[in-house]
Amino acid sequence: MATFMDVHTGMQGITDEQLAAAHRADLAIEAEEGVHFERAWADPESGTVYCLSQGPSAEAVQRVHERTGHPADEIHPVPVSVS
Questions:
Q1: For the chain, first and last CA: distance in Å?
Q2: Which of 12, 57, 65, 77 registers the highest number of CB atoms within 10 A of its CB?
Q3: Which residues of the chain register pLDDT less than 70?
């Protein structure tokens, strides 16, 4: 499976609770697209949200986000990483 970082914009003022709810919504249906959302981060001031996931394609990641009501503005493959 490939790793993806997606970016959502326009979410100024997002709270911890709202981010957690959006993440839970993705987790609830992710298996239907063969995706796993690992983590999400948010900057409430800029309204930017980032999600790290693994899945078969960027399109599969987007389908989950669209179905849960928060489509990504950008989805980037992450072919190289270190920890």
A1: 18
A2: 65
A3: none
